[in-house]
Here is the input.
Amino acid sequence: MDTKFIPVRVSPFTPVIGLEVHIELATKSKMFCGCSSDHFAKEANTQTCPVCLGLPGALPFANKTAIEMVVKFGLAFDCKVNEFSKFDRKHYFYPDLPKGYQISQYDLPLCLNGKPGIRRIHLEEDTAKLVHRAGKSLIDFNRSGVALMEMVTEPDFHNTGDVVAFLKEVQLVARYLGVSNADMEKGSMRLEANVSLSPDGTLPGYKVELKNINSFRFLEKALTAEITRQEEILKSDGKVENETRGWDEFKQVTFSQRTKEEAQDYRYFPEPDIPPISLSQSQISSLKSQIPELPEKKRQRFGKEYKLSQDFIEILVSEKDRADYFEEAARLNNNYKIIADLMVNKKMDGQFPEPAGLIKKIVELTSIEYAPPSEVESAVNLVIMDNPKALEDYDKGNANVIGFLIGMVQKRLNGKGNPKLVQEKLLERLQK
Here is the structure.
């Protein structure tokens, strides 16, 4: 018989990938003014003021809640929180940046050196939104100044699967903490990746940034396409340029946007209008105490405490409210696997807003009103009388007839016989 082998693509290069994740924080007001931060689908330029429009003389003030959210997020990833931090001006000229600079953080971010492989987490303001319509580019400033958290990782990723798994966990942690809904369809979580190739997996002398990708699926496809593009260049002894590239979903390729800026190009200097941030150890400890049980620890505990399958655990933990619903139901009833099955496969938590309602339904499904012992005994006697050959076979040593007789008894009792009692009465009758 002929065996067909599927060729395995072997590359002499290893991808080296670092990530930048931008997450809009769920604060009521913007980062440096009192305008509402709820900008999605609102009429253009209706949520603005002199501060977020960058008008001369307007003075910003820092949003305390946003700072606390970033600290909690950093602590969730075991980051070191800087007791002294500050804001900086990051200069570049683009239509969506009315001041000509972005208030961000440079050398003293709020959080540093987290796990796994997190370099920094800092706080900044979001830009305005460009809207391209009928051959014109329009600007909506509703998003300008919204509190934006940026996580930067080390270039520690070497395959697209690990990248997507990590980013999904980042999104889940943000939701568990309540700092953001991290909804990529609404732009509240945006992904960027720095991609290079090298023979040994170490960082080479270049990197290509894939910018503003708004879904895990698009990022995975963009990474795959960019890795292939760079590999073809390097195999032909070409040079990969430092640049920023976008993803064309229609053509399934990355495309050049601009040359890659370096830190010195942004001309960072301390923001003079906002005082530095000072955090005491007691404040940091207080914020740490507010962090709920996070997804990974919950997964481990659900496996150990409730003995659930990994598939069930993943689905239950994927939403904090759903995990809490399961735990409340588990406190009311110890049929953990039945609860999980009805929630995961039957979606019955959607039918019962309160866990007590689900438990009541489980009790109804699992509680059987058994026939009284006298009826069981009568049914056993009738079955024995109607099946003399079965009695004869049993006397000859054929114990298999017991299963047949139990089925016949249950048929007479319409399935309401207590299985243990039916077997006891049958054995008593057969052994007389």
